[in-house]
Amino acid sequence: MKEETPIIEIKNLSKWYGDFQVLDDITTTINRGECVVICGPSGSGKSTLLRCINGLEDFQKGDVIVDGVSIKEISHTKEIYKLRSRIGMVFQHFELYPHMTALENVTLAPKKVFKIPEKEAEKRGMELLEKVGLREHAHKKPGELSGGQQQRVGIARALAMNADIIMFDEPTSALDPEMIRDVLEVMVDLAKGGMTMLVVTHEMGFAKAVADKIIFMDEGRIIEQEDVETFFKNPKSDRAKEFIDRILVHI
Amino acid sequence: MVDVSVIIENIDLLWGGLLMTFKLFIVALAGGLPLGIFLGLGRLSSRKWIYYPVSAYVHFIRNVPLLMLIFWIYFSLPILTGGLVEPFYAAVVSFIIFEATYFGEIIRAGYQSVSKGTIQAAYSTGLNYWQMARYILIPIALRRVVPSMITQSIVLFQDTSLAYVIGLHEFVRMASLIDNRVIRPLELYGFVAIVFLVICSIGSQIVKRLETKEGERK
């Protein structure tokens, strides 16, 4: 049984780009240790939602509370940097630093943000690269790694700050099919290890295997939030049904 | 018949001209680069009162011939200010004003070539703006910018010969003066061409090396 301590509370969150509303009254709670999968058609606001949680994007209404801290209050202060270091993020297009080796990508933030000594940061960095199966590639630049390897470096980088939460923004959708498995395996291990995870993905196999909850979004709104079984067997809305059909047929 | 003795006999004068060319080049570069950095940053500014004047300046200068700018500063400025302008200063100021706009655009392009996602990734790990700029933005942008910067510097080096028109005794002017006396255009201008070719080729080779190195990184 997982403890029911909320770590992220999203309250009536709304966001506009000019006249266009990207997020419409989003309310949900994520508990410590939970793995939550967010899915929905493209343009439904999933990625934007993640970016509001760590303050990479501003929002106009509502609030996000991360472990008791209001993002609205700290979004334009130095506090936001501290908060971001507690939330790892993994990107669709990896976004590794192209001029640094895999190990440097992983150790930069611990060294600069936490002022961890070089040797110690490197030791920990090597452990993380080992964990994602890339120890022997530690001294390669991103350009010398395959997409799947780059994404696993991305995961190691997100883990390096000992974050409480890791957010994944479509981590496998830019990858070739044979590389998706390697990345998903790492993610499954993390989820089983009790990491709090927020995963925007269409990998329904992953969702079925480890997700505690599925949030289905469309046009900036949360249409359903259910446990995995209920979502797949008895989706309440037609839109979710349609979406599941399309995705499962695709598989 | 080609007779290279004219070069050997006048080598001191030609050397003096080449030194003047280098002097022009170095002073223009020393002024043009910093001004270019400011223009580049101005073109990236979200503050309208910085962005628009800088953009107007860059747009105007890039769309007039350099030769006209040199004439304008050498002949027109004295009419407006009442004082004479030394040819050397007129040339240097023209080059700085002109080349800075090109350097500025290169810097702007370098900055914009750094993916927004990479910057967000740096922020997502908790880096603040200055850390992000120092470890991510500037190193990446610089690597992309240096080859174009050297290429533009080569162009500047060639452009210095335009100072000829206001009577500055740079390399080409020197060759022309000697030619007026000895009438040996083939040898003299051939020599000038070879010297420019050698110097600029060295610059191009450096660019090529840097670009292959950058290519390997990707």
Question: TL;DR of this structure?
Answer:
Chain A has helices at residues 46-53, 71-74, 79-84, 102-113, 118-131, 147-159, 177-192, 204-210, 228-233, 238-250, and strands spanning 6-17, 20-31, 35-39, 61-66, 69-70, 87-90, 165-169, 196-200, 213-218, 221-226. Chain A is an alpha/beta fold.
Q: What is the structural class of chain B?
A: mainly alpha
Report strand order across the widest sheet of chain A. Answer: 6-7-8-3-9-10
User: What is the end-to-end distance of chain A?
Assistant: 31 Å
Poorly predicted tracts of residues of chain B: none
What is the molecular shape of chain A?
Answer: globular
Q: What separation lies between the terminal Cα atoms of chain B?
A: 53 Å
For the largest beta-sheet of chain B, the strand count, sense and barrel status come to:
none
Helix content of chain A: 25-40%
| CATH topology call of chain B | MetI-like fold
CATH structural class of chain B: Mainly Alpha
> Tally of extended strands of chain A?
10
In percent terms, what proportion of residues of chain B is strand?
Answer: under 5%
- Give the ordered list of helices and strands of chain B: HHHHHHHHH
Helix share bin of chain B: over 70%
Hey, which two chains have the biggest interface? A-B, 30 and 21 residues
Q: What kind of sheet is the major sheet of chain A?
A: 6 strands, mixed
CATH architecture of chain B: Orthogonal Bundle
